[in-house]
Amino acid sequence: MKLNLKALFPFTVRDGLVMLFFLAAATLLCCVIRIFDSGNVYVSMIYLLAVLLTSRFTNGYLFGILSSVAGVLCVNYIFTFPFFEFNMTMAGYPITIISMLTVSVITSTMTTQIKQQETLKATAEKEKMRSDLLRAISHDLRTPLTSIAGMSDMLMEDEQKFSPEERLEIHKEIREDASWLIRMVENLLSITRIQEDTKTLDKIPEAAEEIISHAVLRLKKYYPEASVTVSVPQKILFVPMDCVLIEQVLINLMENSIRHGKCATELKVDVKIESGWARFTVTDNGFGFQKEILDKINDGEFIAASQTQDNNRNMGIGLSVCSSIIKAHGGVMKAENGRDGGAFVSFYLPLDEEENNE
């Protein structure tokens, strides 16, 4: 097996600064203690701690080994008589070097293994989420496509056997399923955009009331009879966000309330400031979430929770998209049932305090 030396001994400026910080801190601490204690028994232990911390918080073995060598030289040069001179003949010197090198190698090895295990675990979880998402998508795409194909076949075979009212109803159902597919594609595009641009998400201060207004107007195109009440602060609230993605979140949450709220007839969307966060909430007057579904939603298991609520339309994909978008903004999302019935889903976005205090 060929060793990957670059992986074992990576060199980064960040790791170099970490090593220098711990060595400088060890040196300063030894100098301070020496004011009160003229002995030098503690010096080796403090530098050993610096080697341990360097090995733990840097990648690979390079800086752990360098800190071991540098630590031994500092002990010899600064804190061993004759001071500020190297003395390579003192007893026990080789053992000190070997001990500190051993500590650094062991610590670096353990740290590297832990990081590798964490990477493997994260990769496995990502793959599981991807497979769950693909299964959910295949279900959600197959259902409306089958419906569209079936109703189109009926019209093509003998359109005249249907009354004008029946033909209109069929066309409405085809359009509804087509609209659902369009929104599904929008959600998938949002997920792709988040995965590609999470580190460079372009957040611009936007007026929260405008984003909510746009989301409600778009929802009305799909559900013209939906009753939506909006509540916003008197003062314009600017929230750093990607307005397109946050608008998608609001639409998903409102649509979930309409489709899965079970007898929900009213929706309320509000936003307020809470301890440096902008809290957006979508509330309905339906039956609320089942407890097991609520637990899964708050644990982030949206895809797994989807089929329990509605066998024809998947709630999990929309909520998975919402969760990904909110996390990319540095926020959090949670769902709760109201005391008097209904349910509400809230998401929190960090505020730019100076912007809103002007």
UniProtKB/TrEMBL annotation:
It catalyses: ATP + protein L-histidine = ADP + protein N-phospho-L-histidine. The chain crosses the membrane at residues 20-53, 60-79, 91-111. It is found in: Membrane. GO terms for cellular component: plasma membrane. Pfam families: DUF4118 (PF13493), HATPase_c (PF02518), HisKA (PF00512). PROSITE patterns: HIS_KIN. Residues 136-353 form the Histidine kinase domain. It is a multi-pass membrane protein. Gene3D superfamilies: 1.10.287.130, Backbone structure of the membrane domain of e. Coli histidine kinase receptor kdpd, Histidine kinase-like ATPase, C-terminal domain. Its EC number is 2.7.13.3. The keyword Iron does not apply. The keyword NAD does not apply. SUPFAM superfamilies: ATPase domain of HSP90 chaperone/DNA topoisomerase II/histidine kinase, Homodimeric domain of signal transducing histidine kinase. PANTHER family: SENSOR PROTEIN KDPD. This is histidine kinase.
